[in-house]
Inverse folding.
């Protein structure tokens, strides 16, 4: 191992035509080649895992006027579970689930279609199209739905004009429905991406076997695609579900009284300077995520996502 | 193994084009019931396309496919009396062997007890008794192909299409599987159509075969005929190890055709082929029928000979090949059983003749 890094370092240093820097500092080259893969780990540990772990710790701290002080109290949890917050949290889980379902129904067939019908060389370009929305700020994207969905918005105008409805539909904005529309629009690309990756685990020949045996599209989907693509589908769905719970922007802009998700509860708690409550909400959200990940891993072995079928 | 007069597969004027590319060019073909038929040809020659046209995986641009005298050109694969064994180990990776084999029956809504029985029987037939609970990735390549066979057999269709079924296996296993396939085919009595680019594989399994190249049917016949008496030059070039000489007809004496090869002239039997003086023709001689003859020894029987220089002897175990360069620069191979005892060796660079009996040369007019 040591010898290997040494030769790597000297080889870099030795290639004097290309990198005179490493000629001057051969030991630096060796140091970098040794630690370059450790940097991301250290970074993620320091700035991601540690703060998240501390969330659990801070959630049992005691609230003070403007901050919090070390203690062990479950007051924040009690506050959460005995107020309307828990109802909102559970309701937002329901809304998220509906979003996942709709996004899957719309998005997964797109992924299957791209895999099956688009020529291999063009597949990645087509998938790239779904990244384009991310070039626009999320706030703008979501806010743009308002003039579209509002009482005198485009949807209502058109429906009124063609006489489908007599009075504007108000249920599609500032309601859970509005949030669900926003979630589907925001997160649809993720189910397309994950579905596209998941289809990698479905070898092309299985469709020929199905054709040979006479399996119709429904059988192909239930008996073959679903079991093989399950890890990828689960990962994409989980991503949408968790974001539906956590992204405060969506209920903030599109939601109303009955559409508050965990992210918005935490944001509101921070506004009210109740930091332990915000931490508790985050901790509960994280526990939910970890629980779902565990179940998913037990069911589908999620490590399969990144290993193409050999 | 059943009566050969009944026709299982017939294709008429079958063509398939992909844009400007013609993958299959107006092929006519008949395959008898219960026959083991091989489609042999170089890669990219259209044999797999032909097989898929027969199976219904692709639709013909022109022409018709008849299975048991019924036109099926418009039918999907599952509505045809065919089933397919695919090239790479094409099994459902998430199902056990038993589920893989039984899936087709499940789709046909066969009762699960019956499926279980049939699958168990079929696994026994293909020699996988007791493997029902295994997953495909726990099986060797040969075993996976047996599962594919069982999956097809269990449906009781009567034409089996095999698309390079042994291509992914190593040479030894391939040889064993060839014999196994042949044995199973005789036992079950299905019509097998086997696509391969490996002539040894085709020779081992097939009763009859067709050479497919460049989208066209080159030649069709009994495996031994194609080896011993190929009509077309391409067949001689493709099957076996043949020396091929191109030339012009210089003289015709009854059924003996004299062909001018430039520096020398060779006589060959016409085998009923019509030629006239001046035609461009070819002569092929199998390497095992060509002999390297010392210029000093006089031959006891009349031989057609060409003179050249001995390049080298290549010892191949069972046989030894002599590589000879003719006066016109063409290379010729003469091969005989290696002789451990008193086999004389020819020094490289010595002048030598290569010769064969007149009846061992074969005339090709196309």
């Amino acid at each position: 191992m040591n010898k290997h890094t040494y030769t790597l370092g000297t080889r870099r240093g030795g290639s004097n035509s290309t990198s005179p820097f490493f000629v001057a500092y051969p030991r630096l080259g060796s140091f970098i080649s040794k630690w370059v893969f450790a940097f991301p780990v250290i970074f993620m540990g320091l700035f991601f895992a540690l703060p998240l772990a501390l969330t659990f710790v801070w959630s049992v701290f005691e609230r003070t006027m403007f901050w919090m002080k070390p203690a062990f109290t479950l007051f924040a949890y009690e506050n959460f579970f005995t107020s309307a917050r828990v109802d909102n949290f559970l309701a937002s889980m329901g809304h998220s689930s509906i979003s996942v379902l709709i996004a899957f129904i719309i998005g997964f067939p797109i992924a299957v279609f791209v895999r099956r019908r688009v020529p291999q060389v063009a597949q990645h370009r087509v998938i790239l199209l779904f990244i384009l929305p991310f070039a626009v700020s999320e706030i703008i994207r979501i806010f743009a739905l308002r003039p579209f969905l509002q009482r005198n918005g485009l949807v209502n105008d058109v429906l009124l004009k063609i006489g489908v409805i007599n009075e504007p539909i108000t249920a599609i904005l500032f309601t859970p429905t509005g949030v669900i529309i926003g979630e589907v629009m925001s997160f649809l690309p993720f189910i397309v991406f994950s579905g596209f990756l998941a289809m990698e685990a479905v070898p092309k020949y299985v469709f020929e076997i199905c054709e040979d045996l006479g399996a119709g599209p429904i059988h192909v989907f239930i008996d073959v695609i679903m079991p093989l693509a399950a890890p990828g589908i689960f990962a994409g769905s989980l991503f949408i579900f968790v974001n539906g719970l956590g992204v405060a922007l969506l209920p903030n802009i599109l939601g109303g009284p009955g559409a508050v998700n965990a992210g918005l509860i935490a944001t509101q708690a921070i506004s009210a300077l109740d930091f332990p409550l915000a931490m508790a909400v985050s901790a509960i959200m994280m526990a939910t995520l970890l629980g779902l990940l565990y179940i998913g891993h037990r069911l589908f072995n999620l490590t399969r996502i990144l290993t193409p079928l050999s | 193994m059943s009566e050969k007069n009944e026709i299982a597969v017939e294709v008429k004027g079958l063509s398939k084009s992909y844009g400007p590319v013609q993958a299959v060019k107006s092929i006519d073909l008949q395959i008898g019931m219960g026959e083991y038929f091989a489609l042999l040809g170089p890669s990219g020659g259209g044999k797999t396309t032909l097989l898929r046209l027969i199976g219904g995986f692709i639709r013909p641009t022109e022409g018709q496919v008849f299975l048991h005298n019924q036109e099926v050109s418009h039918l999907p694969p599952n509505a045809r009396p065919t089933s397919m064994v695919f090239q790479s180990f094409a099994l459902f990776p998430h199902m056990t062997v038993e589920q893989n084999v039984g899936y087709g029956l499940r789709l046909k809504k066969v009762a699960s007890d019956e499926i279980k029985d049939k699958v168990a029987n079929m696994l026994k037939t293909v020699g996988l008794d007791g493997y029902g609970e295994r997953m495909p990735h726990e099986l060797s390549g040969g075993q996976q192909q047996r599962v594919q066979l069982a999956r097809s057999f269990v449906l009781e269709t009567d034409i089996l299409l095999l698309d390079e079924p042994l291509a992914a296996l190593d040479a030894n296993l391939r040889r064993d599987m060839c014999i196994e396939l042949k044995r199973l085919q005789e036992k079950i009595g299905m019509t097998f159509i086997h696509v391969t680019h490996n002539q040894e594989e085709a020779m081992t399994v097939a009763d009859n075969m067709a050479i497919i190249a460049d989208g066209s049917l080159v030649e069709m016949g009994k495996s031994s005929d194609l080896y011993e008496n190929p009509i077309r030059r391409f067949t001689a070039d493709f099957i076996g190890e043949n020396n091929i000489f191109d030339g012009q007809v210089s003289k015709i004496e009854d059924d003996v055709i004299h062909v001018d090869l430039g520096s020398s002239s060779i006589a060959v039997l016409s085998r009923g082929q019509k030629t006239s003086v001046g035609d461009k023709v070819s002569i092929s001689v199998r390497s095992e029928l060509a002999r390297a003859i010392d210029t000093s020894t006089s031959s006891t029987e009349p031989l057609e000979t060409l003179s050249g220089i001995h390049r080298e002897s290549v010892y191949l175990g069972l046989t030894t090949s002599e590589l000879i360069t003719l006066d016109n620069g063409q290379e010729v191979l003469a091969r005989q059983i290696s002789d451990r005892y008193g086999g004389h060796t020819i020094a490289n660079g010595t002048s030598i003749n290569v010769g064969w009996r007149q009846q061992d040369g074969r005339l090709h007019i196309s």
